[in-house]
Amino acid sequence: MPSKLADAFRSHPVDIQPKNLHDLKELPDSYQWSADQDRPEPEPAHHEPVPVIDLSDPNALEEIGHACTTWGVFQVVNHGVPAAVLDRMEDVAKSFFSLPAHQKLKAARSPDGISGYGLARISSFFPKLMWSEGFTMVGSPLEHFHTIWPHHYTRFCDSVEEYDKQMQNLAQTLMWLMLGSLGITKEDLNWANNNSNSTTTNPRAAIQLNHYPACPDPDRAMGLAPHTDSTLVTILHQSNTSGLQVLRAGGGTAGWVTVPPIRGGLVVHIGDLLHILSNGLCPSVVHRAVVNRDRNRISIAYLHGPPSNVRISPVQKLVGPSQPQMYRAVTWTEYLGTKAKHFDKALSSVRLCAAAEAKDHNNNNNNNGVQVG
Ligand SMILES: C=C1C[C@]23C[C@H]1CC[C@H]2[C@@]12CCC[C@@](C)(C(=O)O1)[C@H]2[C@@H]3C(=O)O
Ligand SMILES: O=C(O)CCC(=O)C(=O)O
Ligand SMILES: [Fe+2]
């Protein structure tokens, strides 16, 4: 079993090369999603917006608790990350994606690797291609940046490092607020106060730059197919162009809800590992990206996970006679391997049978499992 994040995909290589989408005047057949493959359809007419939470508001904790147990996603403002840090990171993404294809391919992700340029890994689970390209960073991007920008790489590396520092801070703050809102403290997680070497030095995040070029036929294309993130939490910065949609399950207003970009705001997604940690109390939100006709769109995801030596399992405080333990313990690397193999069945593949039976018995139809589409 690989222990390093970067080795998570060794046994599930994906080898689909990105194509140059810029000069296409028509949508090729290989990019045409049919309606039953979940291609974008209109939003439900009446729906609640995704909560926007002001972190400086005295009610923030309560609002976070509500958002975590219902939506699994919210936006934050007044989060303390300077706008300039977000802007500089967006510049890195724009500079990278505007390079000619042969330059970007110098930083190509290897089929069994995690870092580098390519299509989203989940592409292998769909019959059609997605209208996007991505660049994944786990640890320092120095090697790749040095190859593509021999004269300017330090400036770009500095922007990434600064972004990483700020996001790590915010991710920790948000994690404790989210767990705190469920009554969980640091003492309830035996790994949270452990500062051993391997806990602090290994990367506990990936940064994903996404680019969705303007698309000649946006209604038939898919930017990024529906998925949940394999993280504790993901913090997403989207440029001023909309495209992110989240699946609001249940009730009369079920359907895809657009998350409008807010200048300086950040989107927070609950990932599968926080769903496991919360013993199913917090849903990991299914989301996707749609594309549009005239505008390029950039998004930057900070995918935050636990230290690599930590096994995540449901917090004991949230397990009891009426809430049996739903999942077995997994490390981040192990879970990424499971996701690479089972994709949307990954959560159910680590679910414990007794809990599943109890749930079926209760005929509980909430959206704790991942239901794509
Ligand atoms: C740490 C992570 C999390 C990964 C895999 C690995 C590095 C890149 C992440 C993404 C980013 C794009 C969507 C996703 C679904 C994908 O294809 O690559 C993500 C995936 C996951 O959340 O499962
Ligand atoms: O581009 C977006 O808005 C979504 C990106 C995303 O879901 C991801 O990178 O995991
Ligand atoms: Fe995502």
From TrEMBL:
Its EC number is 1.14.11.15. Residues 1-50 are annotated as: Disordered. Pathway: Hormone biosynthesis; Plant hormone biosynthesis; gibberellin biosynthesis. Residues 36-49 have a biased composition (Basic and acidic residues). Its cofactor is L-ascorbate. The keyword Transmembrane helix does not apply. It is an enzyme of class 1 (oxidoreductase). GO terms for molecular function: gibberellin 3-beta-dioxygenase activity; metal ion binding. It holds the Pfam family 2OG-FeII_Oxy. Residues 203-306 form the Fe2OG dioxygenase domain. GO terms for biological process: gibberellin biosynthetic process. Belongs to the iron/ascorbate-dependent oxidoreductase family. GA3OX subfamily. This is gibberellin 3beta-dioxygenase. It comes from Linum tenue. The lineage of its organism: Eukaryota, Viridiplantae, Streptophyta, Embryophyta, Tracheophyta.
